[in-house]
Amino acid sequence: MYKTFSMELAGRTLSVDIGRVGAQANGCAFMHYGDTTVLSTATASEKPRDGIDFFPLSVEYEEKMYAVGKIPGGFNKREGKASENAILTSRVIDRPMRPLFPKDYRNDVTLNNMVMSVDPECRPELVAMLGAAIATSISDIPFDGPCATTQVGMVDGEFIINPNQEQWKSGDLNLTVASTSEKVIMIEAGANEIPEAKMIEAIYMAHAVNQEIIKFINQIVAEVGKTKHEYTSCAIPEELFAAMKEIVTPEQMEEAVFTDVKQVREENIRQIKEKLTEAFAENEEWLALLDEAVYQYQKKTVRKMILKDHKRPDGREITQIRPLAAEVDLIPRVHGSAMFTRGQTQICNVTTLAPLSEMQKIDGLDSNETAKRYMHQYNFPAYSVGETKVSRGPGRREIGHGALAERALIAVLPSEEEFPYAIRTVSETFESNGSTSMASTCASCMSLMAAGVPIKKMVAGISCGLVTGETDDDFVLLTDIQGLEDFFGDMDFKVTGTKEGITAIQMDIKIHGLTRPIVEGAIARCREARFFIMDNCMSKAIAEPRKEVGEYAPKIIQLSIDPEKIGDVVGQRGKTINEIIARCDVKIDITDEGNVSICGTDAAKMDEAKKMIEIITTDFEKDQILTGKVVSIKEFGAFIEFAPGKEGMVHISKIAKERIDRVEDVLTLGDTVKVVCLGKDKMGRISFSIKDAK
Predict the structure, then answer these.
(1) I need a labelling partner for 512 at 20 to 30 A (CA). Which of 73, 99, 403, 633 fits?
(2) Nearest Cα to 553, choosing from 333, 240, 251?
(3) Residue 659 burial by CB count (10 A; 0-12/13-18/19+): exposed, middle or buried?
């Protein structure tokens, strides 16, 4: 027998089957929201993994194409590697749940969410977020939950709780908020310049809904939840810390870590480790824990100095941004380039423009998401942090950072009608010491402007950090955190936006949630910082988009034709359009509505292609003057081609003013001639004259 639990959530029924399937998992929730069905499981290894100093949590979000009645493409006809949406969803599930597991837990844990059916009214990503929390909460895996997640959209200025797929795609807000029973623990947002106050209102509207979901989850746990299992703690022994402080005093550790040069700090810590290794040479147990113990010692030192004395490792004030620099056009021949530097974080971004036909095609579970016109990609090579490592392509972190910077700029991009290009920007990390995704946002914005993309407003991004004390009121917010403050702090709160409002948020924390004063303070701090960056750095490098695309970027001419004439332009099996493309060295895209884009680099050839299309799609009228090429000679006259697939006939009597016996006496194949349209003959055919053309 199994039990089903139900609640009403945003006007739809959310139900959970417990004990129906997945009995061998530590926890399993068979989720139903409308007709959307997701199987969420939580499993843990029996023993901790040896030789690691982190919690090995894996989160998977599996998109099954049968969920929307599709057979996967490709030769194998089965699902392949995770899509970008699946990876981003996995990250959103991971972020609120990871802090709720014990910090000294080293057992492998996997949260798997398999989408089995999709109702367009109920987004499967949300169902998976709730399913992962329920499966973990009812399991025997140690977990300080539950947590709950709610999504908020906005259409016509009105908030919508858990919007459907169409509302999520077309609305002005994509907000995901996760909460514990007391605090907000995760925020992810994409927005169309939402004012800060409006964003805070939406966040706490979602937080209120989360409290109802948590009550529901607690009821399930009370009835079917398992007792949490015991585990082997991997915490560092206090006696080791005591021994370390006798060899390296807190004052010496403070002197080692408090410097604005990352390499100097790392060398100082290396020397401290060397000193401790010599001191503990006879204690193998302590030697095995030394790396983690030194890390914890650094962390305690940095947190204490920030919290008690407002002293940052590099000597900055808590609201101070590191030195800024920006420049454009540093890479020749590309369509646009810019570099943004903030302290020891440096990003070079390159923009590439192409016809709309080169948009990224998307074959996923959301029928509203079939193509992506703007693509931002982020690369993080090992040399950017002074390491050596083989590059194996972008990982989940790189995909997540790229998506965040992409989301930051979508709100200010021109429409396809205003700017008929597909746009790709690539952020190359030259140097990294904190918040490269926000540097990518700034660099991308300048790169787009340098490429001549008419973005509506400038966008900047910054990250705010946090160090908390023993009480909710004891905290310090840090503007523009560097790597050390991210590693040792409690929060990485990233906000991007224009001067009018927010375009994206991503919040990572390591504690059990944030109070409202912290959330409001972080958003306000980020607003001040991004204004400073735009006014004092970005606008000095490039203040507005260039009026035209660059020399090496493709140019595009647009025109509209009668949709019924599309077949004439394309021709049988594409013969006509392919001939125009070959003759004029251009690319041509035609939409079903008759919108034609001609893309090329030679203006004269582009104009020639345009004239050909206009001739093909325009009915000949009496007295119309045209220029064409002789393509066929008959006894009775000649056929003149005005454009690929578009010909007219000149009778022998209309070739010359004097009488001629043979067409070949005047015309030769390939001749270019000017003709005038005479109208239709008795058989309804269009006839032309050379001799009457002026």
Answers:
(1) 403
(2) 333
(3) exposed
Cβ atoms < 10 Å from Cβ of 77: 9
Give the residue among 461, 493, 434 at the shortest CA–CA distance from 313.
434
Angle between helix axes 396-410 and 84-97 (nearest 10 degrees) is 100
pLDDT for the residue 694: 64
In tens, the pLDDT along 488-498 reads 999 999 999 99
Cβ-based neighbours of 38, under 8 Å, separated by 6 or more: 31, 113, 114, 115, 116, 124, 127, 128, 131
CB 31 within 8 A of CB 16: yes
Q: How many other CB atoms are found less than 10 A from the CB of residue 665?
A: 11
Q: Rounded to whole angstroms, how far apart are CA atoms 168 and 153?
A: 6
Number of neighbouring beta carbons within 10 Å of residue 256: 21
**Exposure on the CB side of residue 688, measured as CA atoms within 13 A:** 25
Query: pLDDT at position 173, please?
Result: 97
Helix, strand, or coil (residue 162): coil
- The set of residues, in sequence order, having a beta carbon less than 8 Å from that of 636 and lying 6+ positions away, is 651, 652
Q: What are phi and psi of 251, to 5 degrees?
A: -65, -40
Report the pLDDT value the prediction gives residue 421, as an integer from 0 to 100: 94
Nearest to 430 by CA among 323, 353, 314, 343: 343
Q: Tell me which long-range contacts 540-544 makes (C-beta under 8 A, separation of at least 24).
A: 540/326, 541/326, 541/327, 541/328, 541/338, 541/446, 542/326, 542/328, 542/338, 542/446, 542/449, 542/450, 544/449
Question: What is the number of alpha carbons within 13 Å of residue 310 lying toward its C-beta?
Answer: 8
Q: Alpha-carbon distance 360 to 437, whole Å?
A: 22
64 or 73, which is more confident?
64
Rounded-to-integer distance, Cα 651 and Cα 337, Å? 58
Rg (CA), the chain: 32
E-state strands within 510-575: 555-560
Give residues with Cβ within 8 angstroms of 315, minimum separation 6.
258, 260
List all residues 6 or more positions away from 174 whose beta carbon is below 8 Å from its beta carbon: 151, 153, 168, 189, 190, 191
Q: 668-693 burial by CB neighbour count: b if 16+ within 10 A, else e? A: eeeeebebbbbeeeeeeebbbebeeb
Measured CA to CA, the distance from residue 282 to residue 277 in angstroms comes to: 9
Note the Cα 103 to chain centre separation in Å: 30
Residues in the chain: 694
- Higher-confidence residue of 291 and 39: namely 39
| Cβ partners under 8 Å of residue 498, min gap 6 | 193, 411, 412, 457, 458, 459
H-state helical runs in 100-258 = 124-138, 165-170, 196-224, 238-247, 250-257
Whether pLDDT at 480 is above 70: yes
Within 10 angstroms of residue 557's Cβ, the number of other Cβ atoms is: 18
34: left (phi over 0), alpha (psi -120 to 50) or beta: left
* Amino acid identity at 54: F
Count the helices and strands in the chain (H runs, E runs): 16, 29
Residue carrying the six token digits 């890479």: 331
Tell me how far apart the alpha carbons of residues 370 and 585 are, in angstroms, rounded to a whole number. Answer: 29
Across-strand partners of 328? 338
Q: Which pLDDT tens digit goes with each residue over 194-215?
A: 999 999 999 999 999 999 999 9
